[in-house]
Design brief:
Distance between the termini: 33 Å
Structural class: alpha/beta
CATH architecture of the largest domain: 3-Layer(aba) Sandwich
Strand content: 15-25%
Number of strands: 10
Radius of gyration: 18 Å
Mean pLDDT: 92
Low-confidence stretches: none
Number of helices: 9
CATH topology of the largest domain: Rossmann fold
Pfam family, one: ABC_tran
CATH class of the largest domain: Alpha Beta
Organism: Cuneatibacter caecimuris
Keywords: ATP-binding, Nucleotide-binding, Transport
GO molecular function, one term: ATP hydrolysis activity
Helix content: 25-40%
Protein name: ABC-2 type transport system ATP-binding protein
Length: 242
């Protein structure tokens, strides 16, 4: 479980908060979609949960481990895919996967079997011997997903993970997300595609100007807008400028 307690983050001298007193829990055994307009605070929130940036206020725990006080153990709980796959470009795909496995102390025995499994699911078998800089955007996205999952983390945090994926790979990742949640583990992912959230998520958290404006199931969201069938219209109503 991921727990945020009164978490805030301010950028620049203006004093405007990118994330403002955010409190919510990402439940185990569920897929939680994190939805909001550009600039609403989604990526900042995910980077604070993963320990990439520090909150100015509040507390974040991942499976009971404080991300600031027990950073190493908290990060071991997490598999994180950022919104940019343009990293480690000079490494070959297989070198990157082994690097990630080494970082998380994945035993050599059985490691190759895991690599082969992910490569098969994402149709990357023939690409692992090439440098990541030669990959297409979608292939880079797939190798980053594979690397994030090498240590089989209980908590998945994915920032726009489906962007650039071909339909078959996107389907494979969505099925993996469902299987992971079915095992009682956590999946948190951000998306701009409301149809994906509608079909995939058990819960949705909608953020606007750094604040959670809705947290619950899609059934609970529809109950707030009786007679409205369009998820897009509900989203626009919740995130419209005041």
């Amino acid at each position: 479980m991921i727990c945020l307690e009164q978490v805030s983050k301010t950028y620049g001298k203006s004093g405007k908060k990118a994330v403002d007193s955010m409190t919510w829990n990402v439940e185990d055994g569920k897929i939680t979609g994190f939805i909001g307009p550009n600039g609403a605070g989604k990526t900042t929130t995910l980077k604070m949960i993963t320990g990439i940036i520090r909150p100015d206020e509040g507390r974040i725990t991942v499976n009971g481990h404080d991300i600031q006080k027990e950073g190493l153990e908290a990060k071991r709980q997490i598999g994180f895919v950022s919104d940019s796959p343009d990293s480690f470009l000079r490494l070959k795909g297989i070198e990157y996967l082994n690097f990630m496995a080494d970082m998380y102390d994945v035993p050599t025995q059985g490691r190759q079997e895991r690599i082969n499994e992910y490569a098969r699911k994402f149709e990357m078998e023939d690409a692992l011997g090439s440098r990541i800089q030669s990959y297409s955007h979608g292939m880079r996205q797939k190798i980053m997903v594979m690397g994030a999952l090498m240590h089989q983390p209980p908590v998945w945090i994915l920032d726009e993970p489906l962007t650039g994926l071909d339909p078959k790979s996107a389907f494979a990742l969505k099925e993996m997300m469902k299987e992971h949640a079915a095992q009682g583990k956590s999946v948190l992912f951000s998306t701009h595609v409301l149809e994906v959230a509608e079909k995939l998520c058990d819960y949705v958290a909608i953020v606007q100007r750094g604040r959670i404006v809705f947290l619950g199931t899609l059934e609970e969201l529809r109950a707030k807008f009786p007679g409205e069938e369009s998820l897009e219209n509900m989203f626009l109503e919740l995130t419209k400028d005041e």
